[in-house]
Design brief:
Blueprint (H helix, E strand, L loop, with lengths): L19 H20 L3 E2 L5 E2 L2 E2 L3 H11 L9 E11 L2 E11 L5 H16 L6 E8 L2 H15 L8 H9 L10 H8 L10 H16 L5 E2 L11 E9 L4 E7 L3 H4 L8 E7 H10 L12 E5 L1 H17 L4 E3 L6 H11 L3 E5 L1 H6 L1 E6 L5 E5 L3 H9 L17
Parallel strand pairs: 1-4, 6-7, 11-12, 11-13
Antiparallel strand pairs: 2-3, 4-5, 5-10, 6-8, 8-9, 9-10, 13-14, 14-15
Helix pairs in contact: 3-7
Length: 405
């Protein structure tokens, strides 16, 4: 009888595996963005992962529903939210970082949103590795007129369009501007510019938006083919792309969203989001590494209960002295335990057999130099701290964040 293959057959799933190396980058990004968001008045929000039997796929809908359903209009406006969580897009789980500003239509908020992204990307050594593209799209009154102009523009060019684009031309001609077909891209680049069809208020909004970007010294490129596929989007739209045209960030206003969700009144709102894995891949491609705060400085190996009864409390004492410490508590061969110690990349390995336990003199190996020496049990912790340096100690203590009134 043939043995079954223990590997699980790969198939299309809605989840994605994140391994420790990815989480190291992801944790770093979360810290960076949380810090920047807090400085700019954003507070964190979470929503249900499932609603009406559907996995959440866009944060703006879930956040706006939470805003409307919890009478948050009575709070001081605008409200600044940020969101770091799992989302499900095209049958794939993604790690999204998202912001939402609700109740204010001032274009300065759109500019501030881009400024936050601009600052963060530069802080994490990705400056000059991206470009910012902006545009202004319609409000409902302006959309109809512009769509008519697009249909007129493409009327004598239908023979150059794919069958899919011909169908879209009748129902939603603006989607032709975001085509991926190379020939159609040329047509889109020469299509009428939507900003020329903006009415007074929309035009003023776009002009002020650009003025604020200039004031904040943010470089940008106007791209009149940049649109939003969502029918509740309005005014400002922007994307940030890598040198190879991978989208890092997307954002726009969606002042019509609240009405789509049943609100009587229009609720102004603006958002931006990124899939964190896109930024992680950029960092990896640029050979930018994250300092490993999980490095092990001290690894205990031991044999038999007598040694274990000394090593266990001593390892806890080492952790309480802020040394990153691991202990091999299982009792296979010393060879197997040393293999684990080597794979942990610990700087120091303490070896305790029965004789060492009885004499309180341990064998201490420096894995970087390959040297080994004897060390008294009572001197071990101070010796290791002196050798690795106090700057390597992990002083994190969650209790320090607790306060009483």
């Amino acid at each position: 009888m043939s043995r079954s293959n223990p590997r699980i057959e790969k198939h299309h799933e809605i989840t994605s595996d994140l391994f420790p190396e990815d989480h190291k980058y992801l944790t770093f990004l979360k810290k960076v963005f949380r810090h920047e968001f807090r400085k700019n008045g954003f507070r964190r929000i979470s929503t249900d992962i499932i609603e009406d039997g559907k996995l959440r796929s866009c944060a703006e809908t879930w956040i706006m529903k939470a805003y409307l359903n919890n009478d948050l209009m009575d709070e001081i406006q605008p409200i600044y939210y940020y969101y770091i969580d799992h989302f499900f897009n095209d049958s794939k789980q993604e790690e999204w970082i998202w912001t939402e500003i609700i109740w204010e239509n001032d274009p300065v908020l759109d500019a501030i949103s881009i400024y936050i992204i601009f600052i963060v990307l530069n802080k994490i050594w990705l400056e000059w590795n991206y470009k910012i593209f902006i545009n202004s799209i319609w409000i409902d009154k302006e959309k109809l007129k512009y769509c008519e102009e697009l249909q007129n523009y493409y009327e004598n060019k239908k023979h150059l369009l794919t069958e899919e684009s011909l169908a879209l031309l009748e129902d939603n001609p603006m989607t032709l501007l975001s085509t991926q077909n190379e020939d159609e891209k040329i047509l889109a680049s020469q299509a009428p510019n939507i900003t020329k069809y903006l009415k007074k208020d929309s035009k003023a909004h776009y002009v002020k938006f650009k003025e604020y970007l200039d004031l904040l010294e943010i470089p940008y490129i106007e791209d009149h083919t940049l649109i939003s596929w969502k029918d509740y989007s309005t005014n400002t739209v922007y994307e940030i792309k890598t040198e190879s045209w991978v989208i890092i960030w997307k954002g726009n206003r969606h002042n019509n969203l609240a009405k789509k969700l049943g609100s009587i009144k229009e609720v102004y709102s603006t958002w931006f989001y990124t899939d964190a894995m896109v930024i992680i891949n950029m960092l990896k491609e640029k050979k930018i590494k994250i300092k490993n705060k999980d490095e092990i400085d001290l690894f205990f190996v031991q044999l038999w209960d007598e040694a274990k009864k000394q090593v266990l409390p001593l390892s806890i004492k080492a952790r309480n002295a802020w040394i990153n410490t691991v202990i091999s508590l299982w009792t296979p061969s010393m060879k197997e335990q040393m293999l684990k110690a080597n794979r942990s990349w610990a700087k120091y390995v303490v070896m305790v057999w029965i004789m060492e336990a009885r004499s309180w003199v341990y064998q201490l190996r420096n894995t970087e130099t390959g040297t080994q020496e004897e060390i008294n049990k009572d001197d071990l912790i101070d010796y290791v701290i002196e050798r690795i340096g106090t700057w390597k100690l992990d002083f994190y203590c969650p209790a320090k964040d607790l306060i009483t009134e």
